[in-house]
Amino acid sequence: MLRRVKTHRKILIILTLLCLYPVSIHSRPFVLVLSQDDLKDPSPSDPLSSDSSDSNSDWDEFGDSDSKSDDELDPGSWRSIFEPESQPDPTHDLNRDPTREDGYYSAVRKMVGAVSRGDVGMLEEGVGMIEEAARGGHAHGQSVMGFLYNMGVLRERSKAKGFMYHYFASEAGNMQSKMALAYTYIRQDMHEKAVKLYAELAEVAVNSFLISKDSPVIEPVRIHNGAEENKEALRKSRGEEDEDFQILEYQAQKGNAGAMYKIGIFYYFGLRGLRRDHAKALYWFLKAVDKGEPRSMELLGEIYARGAGVERNYTKALEWLTLASKQQLYSAYNGMGYLYVKGYGVEKKNFTKAKEYFEKAADNDEAGGHYNLGVLYLKGIGVKRDVKVACKYFIIAANAGQPKAFYQLAKMFHTGVGLKKNLPMATALYKLVAERGPWSSLSRWSLEAYLKGDVGKAFLLYSRMAELGYEVAQSNAAWILDKYGEKSMCMGESGFCTDAERHQCAHSLWWQASEQGNEHAALLIGDAYYYGRGTERDYDRAAEAYMHAKSQSNAQAMFNLGYMHEHGQGLPFDLHLAKRYYDQAVEIDPSAKLPVTLALGSLWVRKNCADSFLVEVIDSLPKVFPKVQSWVENVVMEEGNATILTLFVCLLTVLYLRERQRRHAVVVAGEAANLHQPNDPVAPIGL
């Protein structure tokens, strides 16, 4: 599997793009690098023409009155269960059957409640209702059945049946099933099929975070850091319960303009575990402006342009953006340029002035300015059409984290306009954008459940999200299984997961995460094959997994590869290569100095004392250590034995201290006696 994914890794190395998410999200930095060979001269047959500029939907950044809600963009979403205040509008789907929909959501509620309580009977009832709906052709029920078969919940795990259900659900319009299918295709290098689905999903995602005024900004949080819980990230995700937020709120209430602005940002984008609330954001931005905080002016301009929590008013939007630009907030020029391109809030469209504003933004390193100039040149809006120049601007914007630029580059790679057709690259870029869609709300609901201590619900939601191809969700779900074991409420074929089912599930999730560049996951996969944990021992596959982790500069993987070369396990016996890997491990991580020093000592013994008993002693250590560890865990650390051992150690310590005190007293007494028996005569004392 890892060999098959090397193509994906090469793409991701070339296309190392900066993260799509806000600053608070932990993810790998990526940089997009294209060679001259990737560029393509435009031709008259290109589907883009200069006269299509006014009607192009790429410019609907702030949204129009007919923008769709997240429930329309992601039909069948569980939003009404986890966000009851956000009930779907029944009028948006004229074909909606209230009875079937209510039955579906009732079944999902039972399923979610069952994993929270660990109630297998309740889960069987909910799954039975979903299965009945799926057999009746209910698309969203079919999507859930695809998930249940892929996970092996109350049925034998079957990827084939899972694929079948997702296929029918996607054909009927379920977007999450389309995500699952697209991820399945990309894992199998079926880029022609994957790119079509991801293109559609990316377009929906663009609509959700560029048009829909209610679309949330999700913060995918990795709940673990290696094998340990990521306490710092979790602490910052507790929303209004976070102590830092409460201090910030107190400062804002006392009149601190900077604190008012930050709280407004948190509510506007839904950061730090807060639910997105445009009304609260508007309240704090207005108060901040009254206190002289200029950064709030730009956000107020965007709020009025989007109609986020207020009635859309382009005239007010332009006024606020203009005030912000006068305060050297250069990103405001992007909004002003947009209004002149669309002719909103101004007398008429003015492409020349729009270009001037975009150039001011770009000259001050604003990613939006580069993207907007790219669209001008791509479409020939107010300038001579130049696809190469457009591509240059899109690359700069993409490397600065501008998601719209990813989308434009993906379309160029997909269609072969401006860039040579490259389906693997297009697929990877579309996937990055698609993962920003409204279905990413699963991440927030999972995190909220975990923070409340509802591990079963968190695992279910992360598992659903993992199926859609989210690496963070894959590693989070796998970590929950390893960390919590039976408490994870993992459900298997006949109820609660057996140890074997849990190990198999965790192994599968870690494997998927490793394919997408998670070095910790690759390391765990290597350990699983090396030690035979949850799978058969296979040194060759262990070495392959360690190589995968080593390619990401993981010191532990380098050390393990050195050890395998030293012992000829899964890799050729080669002491020189072993030393090279050991040296690389300590270069990457200085804390590895002690184990590396011991390993180098072992190499020296093997090289200079090959036939001595020392080599036999070294080779026997791996067999002896587990026995010692088992003895410590089963005998020494047993509660009664541990207490007796502690008392025994304390007794020995007391006896040792008493003996040392006694000996010290004897020595002192001897020295005092010597003072009264001098060897030399002493002169009499006279008056």
TrEMBL record:
Membrane topology (UniProt): Single-pass membrane protein
Pfam families recorded: Sel1 (PF08238)
Gene3D superfamilies assigned: Tetratricopeptide repeat domain
Region described as Disordered: 39-101
Coiled-coil region list: none
Biological classification of the source: Eukaryota, Viridiplantae, Streptophyta, Embryophyta, Tracheophyta
Name this polypeptide is given: ERAD-associated E3 ubiquitin-protein ligase component HRD3A
Biased composition (Low complexity): 46-56
Example GO BP: ERAD pathway
Keywords noted in UniProt: Endoplasmic reticulum, Glycoprotein, Membrane, Repeat, Signal, Transmembrane, Transmembrane helix
Chief localisation class: endoplasmic reticulum
Subcellular location: Endoplasmic reticulum membrane
GO cellular component terms listed in the entry, alphabetical order: endoplasmic reticulum membrane
Signal peptide limits: 1-27
Organism: Heracleum sosnowskyi
Similarity comment: family membership: Belongs to the sel-1 family.
PANTHER family in alphabetical order: ERAD-ASSOCIATED E3 UBIQUITIN-PROTEIN LIGASE COMPONENT HRD3A-RELATED
Biased composition (Basic and acidic residues): 90-101
